[in-house]
Write a structure and sequence with these properties.
- The complex is a heterodimer of chains A (409) and B (385).
- The radius of gyration of chain A is 23 Å and the shape is globular.
- Chain A contains twelve helices and twelve strands.
- Chain A is α+β, with helices and mostly antiparallel strands and 409 residues long.
- Chain A has a four-stranded mixed β-sheet. In chain A, strands 4-5-9-8 form a four-stranded antiparallel β-sheet, with no helix packed on it. A two-stranded antiparallel ribbon of chain A has the order 1-2.
- Chain B is of the alpha+beta class and 385 residues long.
- Chain B has three domains: 113 residues, Acyl-CoA dehydrogenase/oxidase, N-terminal domain (Butyryl-Coa Dehydrogenase, subunit A, domain 1); 93 residues, Beta Barrel (Butyryl-CoA Dehydrogenase, subunit A, domain 2), CATH 2.40.110.10; 167 residues, Butyryl-CoA Dehydrogenase, subunit A, domain 3.
- Helices cover 53% and strands 15% of the residues of chain B.
- A four-stranded mixed β-sheet of chain B has the order 1-4-5-8.
- Chain B is globular, with a radius of gyration of 21 Å.
- Chain B starts with 6 loop residues before the first helix and ends with a helix.
- Classes of the chains: A alpha+beta (409), B alpha+beta (385).
- Chains A and B meet through helix 8, helix 9, helix 10 and helix 12 of A and helix 7, strand 10, helix 8, helix 9 and helix 11 of B.
Chain lengths: 409, 385
């Protein structure tokens, strides 16, 4: 057992460190984000940074060499991410395109398409989004209803997507549609890519309970997509979507809200019953609980890194980190606010401890428990793919899609 | 990055699992459960013949001189099969106390006998149904003679020697006591887990040798408990994994409402939560193993985190294993209760959760103070370098 890098990993780490030192700015505070520094100018600055990252060869480490990647195993992505944590770097602009959309195109696209879109995405000149979820198809993605109807060399698309991160700034998108409602649900799907500037697309921001707007609704009215922009065969869209989602597992980011260090510091600085809150046994017990969860996730990640370092693929065991951290983030935020007593109500960053990071986390953490696999779906994944338990009894496998019962509205 | 056991250590694990499948099968464990026999002497002899009792004892004292990682590997397997043997008390506690504080003569006298399986040791700290504290110890040593009562002492009824925490005037020290000497009266106590034996030991002017420096007793208790906490945590994750495996197997084979109960989300999510608890505990425990095997300054924090995490995970897995089995899980006939009992016993034998959670936070506070840095959770140089 040791925590040292292999020779190759150490060389790469030094290279990544040098690149970041020369090109990225350190964070001014633990919770500073790209958006909080640059506001509406965020995308412009992100694109500039992405270009440098691509030129230095750090933009897509796992991509094949011919498309500007380095064909490296996922351990190098983890090393790069570790080095990045000290710096203010853009988040949420390019991950979906580079981590999910383009790898799907590399599997199903033509050589010409790969050549046209790969380098553009890598340099950040084109930003991609993923048009998957719908109001009636979230965890049950294959229940989606956006219709694709063949018309000559084109397909005509009508319907609605939701929870689309970055649709409001994206140039390109991947889209999964229902091309045949008369066959069972998984068999009637077809997959495309398209320009977000196409006529017939309307994007509306969604305001979250945190007050922020990371997601969009996207409406299609007689949107036309040429058949040449289909990825995979007609009716095989589910298989293509699975390719995309397999890549999501490697892309999903870490929890970035306040964690043990912050609640520990808070418990030392606020008073309870005349002493520091941390002297209170009930407070100490809760702190211990948070600590062992945080560290458990942290050391689990080192076990995953060990497997990656040996060239193994990360399995669904990795779902643990997200499942534990999302719920812990919510509980920790609520507990920290309790420590502030009545003051916990205040969310004004000029007034609240740590610039209201805990209050922000209270309002953003419900989303963490839902996005990229709800707590419930993750438990199913662990139960079925790790423990090998049977899937639920399904009533939707054989029936034609159009005969399935749907939500009452 | 290699946060895992080596191929040799994994081979040792496979060998241990094979040996224990035969020598510590459920049938064998039940022989101890169902009778007044305190432990499985045949199993204990076999473990000594395999060299397990001398794993971390240096060769100079008759041991194998392996490191602690090998001992961790064995502990996990012993936990998995709920082994009815005095391994934890002898090896993780009494032997560790000797290795940490013993004089050359003391080590020479006892360690070869431990390694060969001739001597069983125990650690006598508690004095009643409450957490022991240095000031409140009633056991006294005067002029090299120990008097007082220690209870409960795991394996105290069968041990050949004891490491005893006692007061000499206003000082707390550790003492080494030959339990075959005069003035030792032992009574076995009924325990929640009859596969392990526990005693009350009364000393009446029993000869006792100072172990370590006079007055250093409580610091040594802390050190020994930390080291044992990591090793017991491996028994706990072994047991937790075994309870999860049992629940999984039963859920797959048990049908209700026309389908295996393993296909109901109520059961699937229960098992997923057991898996998550055991995995987080495993990761914390691996870190404890790293700290123990490298004598890292992180050990006090790492050991407490492993202790808290593994204690909670094993008890969680053991109780939910019974729940998954339904009524059958509540019968003497099924093995679920072996883990339920052992989980609670292991969770108490080094002190209960409230104490360890408090210790954990105290140590994080001490570390933060020592570092003087805002990085309260601390980062080992090796990890962030």
């Amino acid at each position: 057992m040791d925590f040292t890098d292999t020779k190759e990993e150490a060389t790469f780490r030094a290279e990544a460190r040098a690149f970041l030192a020369a090109n990225a700015e350190p964070k001014r505070g633990t919770f500073e984000t790209w958006q909080s520094r640059y506001g509406d100018e965020g995308l412009k600055h992100a694109k500039a940074f992405q270009r440098k990252k691509a030129e230095a060869g750090f933009a897509a480490l796992s991509w094949p060499n011919e498309w500007g990647g380095r064909a490296l195993s996922p351990i190098y992505q983890v090393i790069y991410a570790q080095e990045e944590t000290r710096y203010l770097v853009p988040r949420g602009y390019f991950e979906i395109g580079l981590g999910m959309c383009l790898p799907t195109m590399f599997t199903y696209g033509t050589e010409e398409q790969k050549r046209r879109y790969g380098p553009q995405a890598l340099r950040g000149d084109e930003v991609w989004c993923q048009l998957f979820s719908e109001p009636g198809a979230g965890s049950d993605l294959a229940g989606l209803r956006t219709r694709a109807v063949r018309d000559g060399d084109d397909w005509v698309i009508n319907g609605q997507k939701i929870w689309t991160s970055g649709a409001h700034w994206a140039d390109m998108a991947i889209l999964v549609t229902r091309s045949d409602p008369k066959v069972p649900k998984h068999k009637g799907l077809t997959f495309f890519f398209l320009s977000m500037k196409s006529p017939g697309i309307e994007t509306r921001r969604i305001k979250q309970i945190s007050g922020q707007s990371h997601f969009n609704e996207v409406y299609f009215t007689d949107l036309r997509i040429p058949d040449s922009q289909r990825l995979g065969a007609v009716g095989q869209g589910w298989g293509v979507a699975i390719t995309t989602l397999m890549n999501e597992r490697l892309t999903s980011g870490d929890y970035r809200g306040p964690d043990f260090d912050e609640v520990f510091a808070l418990a030392k600085s606020v008073r309870l019953d005349g002493g520091a809150a941390i002297e209170n046994p009930a407070v100490r017990e809760r702190l211990a609980d948070f600590y062992v969860k945080s560290q458990g996730v942290r050391w689990s990640r080192f076990r995953t890194m060990t497997a990656l370092s040996r060239g193994e693929t990360p399995g669904p065991e990795n779902s643990i980190g997200k499942l534990v951290n999302a719920a812990k983030g919510q509980d920790l935020a609520s507990f920290a606010m309790d420590l502030m007593d009545m003051g916990g109500m205040v969310m004004d960053p000029e007034w609240a401890p740590m610039r209201a990071a805990f209050q922000e986390a209270l309002l953003s953490s419900p989303g963490s428990r839902i996005a990229a696999g709800t707590d419930e779906i993750l438990r199913n994944i662990i139960a079925e793919r790790v423990l090998g338990l049977p899937g639920d009894v399904r009533v939707d496998r054989e029936l034609p899609f159009e005969e399935l019962p749907t939500s009452k509205r | 990055m290699n946060f895992d056991f080596s191929p040799d250590q994994k081979a040792l694990r496979d060998q241990a699992r094979k040996f224990l499948a035969d020598q510590a099968s459920s049938t064998r464990v039940r022989r101890i459960l169902d009778t007044d026999t305190p432990y499985d002497a045949e199993l204990w002899r076999g473990m000594a013949e395999m060299g397990w009792t001398g794993t971390a004892i240096p060769e100079a004292y008759g041991g194998a001189g392996f490191g602690y990682l090998e001992l961790c590997v064995l502990a996990e397997e012993l936990g998995r099969c709920v082994a009815p043997a005095p391994f934890a008390s002898t090896i993780y506690l009494a032997t560790e106390a000797l290795l940490q504080a013993g004089s050359e003569a003391q080590k020479k006298r006892w360690l070869p006998r431990v390694a060969s399986g001739e001597a069983i040791g125990c650690f006598a700290l508690a004095e009643g149904p409450e957490g022991p504290t240095s000031d409140a110890l009633a056991a006294r040593v005067a002029g090299g003679a120990l008097s007082g009562t220690k209870a409960p002492v795991v394996d105290g009824d069968v041990a050949d020697f004891a490491v005893v925490a006692a007061r000499d005037g206003d000082r707390t020290s550790l003492y080494l006591v030959d339990l075959h000497a005069r003035g030792v009266a032992r009574t076995a106590l009924k325990t929640v887990d009859p596969t392990r034996s526990v005693a009350s030991i009364t000393f009446a002017n029993t000869p006792a040798e100072l172990l370590g420096d006079s007055g250093a007793g409580w610091a040594l208790v802390d050190r020994v408990l930390d080291r044992a906490a990591v090793l017991v945590a491996f028994e706990q994750i072994g047991g937790g994994q075994a309870a999860l495996d049992m629940a999984r197997e039963y859920a797959l084979g048990r049908f209700a409402f026309g389908r295996p109960i393993a296909s109901f989300q109520a059961i699937k999510h229960k098992l997923a939560d057991m898996y998550v608890a055991v995995e987080l505990a495993r990761s914390n425990t691996y870190y404890g193993a790293w700290a123990l095997s490298t004598d890292a300054p992180e050990l006090p924090v790492a050991a407490a985190a492993a202790r808290v995490s593994a204690t909670e995970a094993y008890f969680h897995a053991a109780k939910e294993n019974i729940q998954t089995h339904g009524g059958m899980g509540f019968t003497w006939e099924f093995d679920c209760h072996l883990h339920y009992r052992r989980a609670k016993l292991l969770g108490l034998m080094l002190g209960g959760l409230p104490r360890w959670k408090d210790r954990l936070i105290s140590r994080i506070e001490a570390r933060a103070e020592a570092a003087g840095a805002p990085d309260a959770a601390g980062r080992t140089a090796a990890v962030t370098a």
